[in-house]
Amino acid sequence: MTQPSTRDVPVLIIGALLPSLQEAVETHFDATRFWELPDQDAWLAQHGERIKAIVTSGALGASSEVIARLPKLEAIFSFGVGYDSIAVDAARDRGIVVTNTPAVLDDCVADTAMALTLDVMRRYSEADRFVRAGKWTQGKFPLASKIGGKKIGIVGLGNIGESIAKRAAAFDMQVLYHNRKPKAGVAYQYYADLDTMIADCDVLVLAVPGGKSTEGLIDAKRIGLLGSKGFLVNIARGSVVDQPALIEALREGRIAGAGLDVYEDEPNVPQALIDLHNVVLLPHLASGTHETRQAMGDLVWSNIQGYFHDERKVLTPVG
User: Fold this and answer.
1) What is the dihedral angle through the alpha carbons of 89, 94, 95, 100, rounded to the nearest 10 degrees?
2) Is the pLDDT at 59 greater than 60, yes or no?
3) CA 81 – CA 13 distance, rounded (Å)
4) 284 an active-site residue?
5) Would residue 290 show up in a list of annotated catalytic residues for this protein?
6) Which of 45, 56, 101, 148 makes an SS bond possible with 14, Cβ 3.0 to 4.6 Å?
7) Catalytic residue among 123, 167, 178, 284
């Protein structure tokens, strides 16, 4: 059966998408590029009442202010697993469907977490800079920390956290984890108390969602619990960590190092972090492979197709 055309369905694209996804949306819908509008407020006042769907990303989201300006909005399709930048409560109050792209990026995000763990503990990036600066001829590079046998504490053993745990176990690390409750079917050591786990582990990996419930979860006190030989790895959200407190602890040597893929105010990274030798900095690229980004785009498109062509059935609704 031929599917009904959606060419006249008004859709608002918040920011630039994966090219193949953006092309599909713009080919099959009456799409507007919100980020290119010279006067977004005026456009919303004139055209906002027409919009039926938003296509966005986890980074760009959809604010409650924008949602309020779209009285006919039915669905928000997001490219990304995190949705703390989307006003989900405001959407839910109006019966607006929100989708994200979980599961398809678990492996690549877990790879990044493990790469940061290896890098910051073994000091690989620092050693690379050492060689490039011509310092090897002047003496040997300092010794680093062994990976095998160390305790890795994972905050949030969801799909991504469990993928990290499997990789860490393959490196002969002892896996500890903290969740609201123990996870069925896993043999890793569970800690009901986060502070106790942090004090017990050698490297702390953050794999929790962003949002108000986890904002500032790792504060100055908890950073201090890691001790001078402890490491912190964050592939969750910058808001989860007290960034100034982390910088101070790194600068003063109160923790050994950190590996970061996320920050408080992306893409702005404080110069104080950049100047530190004991931190590895990545530009929020955890899911950044051709294969994973395409899988994410395909899932967004499947959700869009399901909503408009299969009685509003979506594969990955939020909540």
Assistant:
1) -40
2) yes
3) 18
4) yes
5) no
6) 56
7) 284
